[in-house]
Amino acid sequence: MDKFKLSSFGKHVVNNINPANYVNHTSNNNNNNNNENLHDFNDAEKFFDEPKSEIQSNHSNHSFISEKSRPSRIEPRRPPMTSFELHVANSPNNSYALANVVAVSPSDFPNNSYILLDNLFVFTTRHSNEIPPKTIGLNGNQRTWGGWSLNQSVQVRPFDLVAYTSKHSYIGNMDVEISFRSRGKAVNTKFEQDDLSRHFVKMFESQVFSPTQYLIFEYKGHIFDVKIKGLQAIDIGDVQPKPHVSTKIETKSILTNQSHVSFYKGRDGLVNLTAGSSLQTSNPNAVIRPDFKFEDLGVGGLDKEFTKIFRRAFASRIFPPAVIEKLGISHVKGLLLFGPPGTGKTLIARKIGTMLNAKEPKIVNGPEILSKYVGSSEENIRNLFKDAEAEYRAKGEESSLHIIIFDELDSVFKQRGSRGDGTGVGDNVVNQLLAKMDGVDQLNNILVIGMTNRKDLIDSALLRPGRFEVQVEIHLPDEEGRVQIFEIQTKKMRENGMLAPDVNLKELAALTKNFSGAEIEGLVKSASSFAINKTVNIGKGSTKLNPKELSQLRVTRADFLNALDEVTPAFGVSEEDLKTCVEGGIINYSESVDNILKHGARYVRQVKKSDRSRLVSLLLHGNAGAGKTALSAAIALNSGFPFVRMISPNDIAGMSEAAKIAYIDNTFRDAYKSPLNILVIDSIETLVDWVPIGPRFSNNILQVLKVALKRKPPQDKRLLILTTTSSYSVLRQMDILSCFDNEIDVPDVGNLDELNNIMIETEFLDDAERVKVINQLARTRPAINLGIKKILTNIETARHDEDPANEFIDLIVNS
Asked: Which residue spans traverse the membrane (predicted)?
């Protein structure tokens, strides 16, 4: 063994390294003749074409290594060489590719020594007289890994592992992905994990490996492409080795006969791997790729949800079959993601294929299942499971995982019996899915992922254990989650210096309450459009870019603030509706108004801070025009709650009874999706279609409101309900008053002092004329008893008269 390499290791490792793999593997003339008919591995797209018997024959000769070619002594160490430039050429023959070595001239480097290319890629050398000086022979996989072309110059220098890692490092465990080099030569032969690991170590012992490395591997006449996914580097001085597996290319370590190699199926899933009998043997069909990290998905704000998904749906599939058999459990077959639109359900579906070491997922939009032909809809369901059933019959528990993703699940799999089409197709489709997921012939190699905005519409049988038993709600992101989403959405800007330094992502996250991930993405696009618009000179008949400003293009804080005015959250504050109710502002004409606002603020604090009051419902009652709706809107707007909604008769006018019930129910359900919510129900007697003639009202709507007013939100959600009515006695007869926690009386304007305050606040008339009005009304109508709305209307009418004071007196007296 080369002393240049031995200096990097202690005696313990040396004793466990097979010198045969360090020595010169250069084939002699006879060996080269045996391999001259093999296709060249220098082209990464070429494959072996010779019969298996020839490969096996060569394999019997120690995998293209002639015993006669092995030197009988260890070569002396040569003086260390500085980095210099070599030109890339093809490997002389296939033996170099199969041994995962590079060909060098004897005048450039010692035989069987480590070299470092471009300060990143480590290879083992082998002498070749066919390689001229200042040239290095690389096979196709090696050139692909390093990104080199033929005749390209590379920087090469000797590599010392101890100097590089500052420790005596060897591989404890290495995760590799294995695929047939030629899909056309894929076979269904079972390859046992432990046998593959032993042969891999025998072939490449004493070589240095790094994550992301590509190489060719021959086993029993079959040629495979192998990619190193991650490795555990162990220092021989460690008493307790660290279990961390690195996936970074900078990690480098040596393979010894004590190392273990865990094989996983490649993307094609064609290699039929079987786990060993040991409980420590990894599961070759593990659904999660060994190098997977959740942050690589590019989905922010869903840490808790991903943790639950992983624990419930995927964790059991990582363990070896022997462990699962001892536990006596079966894998989860169904996962349901539900929540508001734009929170990332479909994004998870698109990204989920990147985290899975399984067959390519089948993604189906719900309505695609349905067909106009009789029986075709049910057949479409059966076809989705056909591949999984065939493989499970052939391979049993060793079969790969088959994933089926349903988007818009509620559009097809509705509650049975709820459709009115009379065909029964919808019911049959539900029955077919139930039978396939958890029927008589059970499959253990499927995972069905469904996504919906309306979990309540899905047939209840689909939500039972054995079907979609894992149900994860994808919430609106909290502030920390919004920071993560902003980091993802602005990553390119930051990397390319396009984000101005005055942009604070934490500030933006605080300003974007109740924004979904999709809405944050839209906000970033809007901010970018404001920044881009600064560089465009829009002239008459032409639009030109300003080259000077283009080079200084930056997305600034001001651009994001402008975008906040343009992009509003779907589950935010309905400011337009609420501000319409308080267009003229709140006029504090008496202590009663101040008291009502103070009481409202107190209930807001109670909902926000109390651990026992997740739900508080208030009833504001008074005569028509007393200002109940305006006061409710003011309390809601001043609360600072991220979600504020109003149910108004204007929103449901003309709807059928069923449509009104659905609208009210959906609005209440939306009010459970934010941590803090306020719901304003305006004119509740109108919502229930009450009219004094008859009297008549909708009992169905009334019962829905009774239930909704008492229904507590989920554990981590809080809701304040502000309801207004002008028919308090009617509500008493309807027996709905018991649904409210408290009642607030909103009085009319009662006396002349309050009327005078209103005129002052609205700047109506001067002091002398106001005195005249008050004195005149004191004689004709000392008790006003009018609603604030009526008085404000009279003021605006009088403003446009030639004699506003007398006109106002007449309007008040006659009201």
From this structure: none
